[in-house]
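Bench log, entry 3. Co-assembly request; chain sequences pasted below exactly as received.
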Amino acid sequence: MTTQDARAARDRIALMQGTLELLILHALILGKQHGQGIARDIERSSDGVLLVDHGSLYPALQRLEAKKWIAAEWGISENNRRARFYALTRTGKAELRREAGQWQRLVAAMGRVMRPAGSGS
Amino acid sequence: MAPQRHDDDFDSEIESHIQLEADRLADERGLDAEKALAAARRAFGNVTSHRERFYETARWMWLDRVRRDICHSTQRLLRERRFTATALTTMTLCLGAALAVFAAADTILWRPLPIPGADRLVTIYNTYPGAGVLDDGASAANYLERRGTLPPLSDVSLFHHTTAVVGETGATEREDVTLVTPEFFDTLRVTPIRGRAFTAADAAPNAERVVIVTDAAWRTYFGDAQDLTNRYLRANGAAVRVVGVLPASFRFLSSRTSIYVPYGTRPEQGLPRERHSGSNSAMIARLADGASIETAQAAIDAQNDVIERDDPASALMARVGFRSVVVPLRARHVADIRTVLLLLLCGALGLVAVGASNIVNLVLIRTTARARETAVRRAIGAGRGVLAVSVSIEIALLALAGGALGTAAGGLGIRALSLIGIDRLPLGAEILIDGRVMAAAAAGTLFFAIVMVVPALWLTLGAGAVGGMTLQSRGATSTRGASRARQTFVAAQIAAAFVLLSGSGLLGVSLFRALHIRPGFRADQTVTGQVTLPWQTYRRLADRRGFIDRVLNDLARLPGVSAVSMASNIPLSGNDIKSAVTLDAAPGNAGGELHGYYSYWVSGDFFGAMGVPVLTGRALNADDSLRPERVAVVDEDLAHREFPDGRVVGRRLFQGSKIGSDADAFTVVGVVGAVKQAGLTDRSRQGAVYFSSQTYSDNTFFFVVRTSSRTDAVAAAMSRIVRAADPELPITDLRSMTSRIDDSLLTRRSPAVITALFALLALVLVGIGTYGVVSYAVFQRRREIGLRLALGADPGQIRRQFLAIGWRLLAGGTAVGLIGAWASGRLIQTVLFDVPALHVPTIVAAAALIGVITTCACLLPSSRAARLSPMTALLDD
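Structure output for the full assembly:
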């Protein structure tokens, strides 16, 4: 492993249970994407903080596909490679809105509870 | 459930992911293609475990496991050839035998007849028990009385089996023909597929002669023709028009009739004096909706009471106990062979029990032998459910294979049944594998499956399995239960085989005794044949006499012929007709009484031709038919019953139910020996009268010839002579009396043969079972034996010890078997002839046979035990 990788590995935070599905759905908001692209998008959007195990992406994708929140079909990527592209379905979009809202509320609540001592009323 | 993705699809996706990642790494970090690919793979993680996870979620795992179990089980069964072959052979033989017998019993006793509503059909017959006539059919008068007058019977019909000569001159055949009253097919609810049924007009005296034929007869005479216009047949010399064709599947009970003719009834046949004339017709009727046999019987009895009041012979009828009996049609038709069939079915089930015992033992031995494998599987985490499924799949495969082979064997068995003449039994002609037999086959397969699965599961999942790893090294207590179970099964087998053997022995002795019954006549070198003269061409008595005399003369001139005769009937012909005969009253005699006796009208030298001895007085001879005096001969049974004082010759008797004038009287001129009339095993002494034939007015009779030449040559000559006398007439049923005797024993011979076969199979199975048990006992205790031999034990003693195992089983099995043999002997008493239920020679022979088989089966493994090399036994683990 290069020093770059080692430093990157130290700084990363492992994903919490259950959040991977939400991140995948969000990554597909802008349009269809293949598995590797989804992983790369998540890592980039989090500025390299969130650690995505590429392999465990696939069980999550299978689950989402089983629940019919995403649909898949084979296509050609930017550099002319054959890849399986995933896209949000209508139910998937609704589900994304619902879970995103829940996440925001959770984060806000956590923030209020974890206020540093001495601030607030 | 997600739609099933193929494994390859998933693999492609992973590959494409890795490739894309490699591209990115190459771009961002400037790695070359190879290093980028390696880095991408590292980042992806364990491809194999991801693939496995995908695999697991993407399909039903249990289905996979079942498929794998089936493959493994098949391989294992194919590998263990001896076990699989033995189990399959046992199942095939037992299931095949049981299915063949079941098919026969089902077709004859239970399967619904191809007539709609057959269970509502009854037959009504007149019986006169006091006069010794138990079944006299029904008369035309009965038909006229009951047609439409009794509410419990919605349809009433009369029918009469006879024959007719059909065909063009010189090419005639005698065909079976049935006369039926016009509504007969309505009663059966059968409609001709072409043309029409009979109408009342067809039965009128001067109506055009019409017939209805079966589908097979139509094809014989008219081929594939479809239309009915102007289709004529030549029957008894006259043209008859075919007006209807019956469905191909139609068959009236067992009759081989191909042509149905309207039965015309004349009003004078309804007169009271014709009521008891019998006329050899039979009556069938259909119960109305809501009526039962009892209500029908009550209605008939009530009607009889009213009518008999006006009968001039009513007092006589009451004395002889006249009654008209209503019984279900089918039950009566098969009554004679019902017991035999049920007996055979029990025998087959006994064989199945013996086979099942063998299979249980095999399975127990095999499961015990695989105890170590099972223990290992449990140790590495196989749950009980998984083991149970695995065991069950193996047994299911075996059972299915055995079931399929058994069904095929059953088909062969059914084919073999027809070889022993089962198609001549009532309803026995159409035995085949139908849905019901397949259902029985499925039940049999399920039975064997359960019989195999229960011990296998018990041993595999039982407490003993846990300690399985150590089982091989010593005889652990946990297998003693299995051992005891196995020995019990072998003892049970021996008992069942004993019962089968003794049953078969009883039937065999019965058959032997029946074969050696003296029929009262000399059956060898006697040829008989039947001729029917058509009424149309032989209207006058003189014409008929002329024909008979000409044929008798020609027959007498054949070389080697010592006696010829014409007779209205012959013993064992299948027509046991009795007629009313009244004896002249005399002081000290029970005369004036009406009784039914077998009656024969003979001309020529009947007693010489049949070889019946003359005891007193003289026999009838050729001259008696030419003289005007009416003479008769009685047999010794009648003489004992009617003339106890011994003075017989010179007595007078009358045909019919009352004493007539002197001109009607027959004088008895001699007494002859009694002969068996209806069957060889006739127990009752019925008595017979032989009249000289001047008064014989019927048109059917037999020719009887005694010859020293070969019977088939004489038969051919008889046929030629009859054709020479009249080219229209065939002589039928042409065979020797010996062949008639053989035929009459059919219902005795077939069961004896079949049960003997079952007993033989059971013996073979017992041998295999005993061999297996003793063999395994030796194997289990080989270390102990080796030790003992090494320490100097006597090999003979070892051998005796293991022989003793077999003998112990033999003793136990025979003891139980004796009880079973006695019980079964009691049950089949009605079928046996002259044999007691506990026939000592049979029992002794059966015990000896089983003893020999068991001892031989034990000898091999016992000798092996005695010759065991201590080194190999002790080192073998």
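Confidence is low (pLDDT under 50) at residues 465-478 of chain B. The longest helix of chain B spans residues 478-515.
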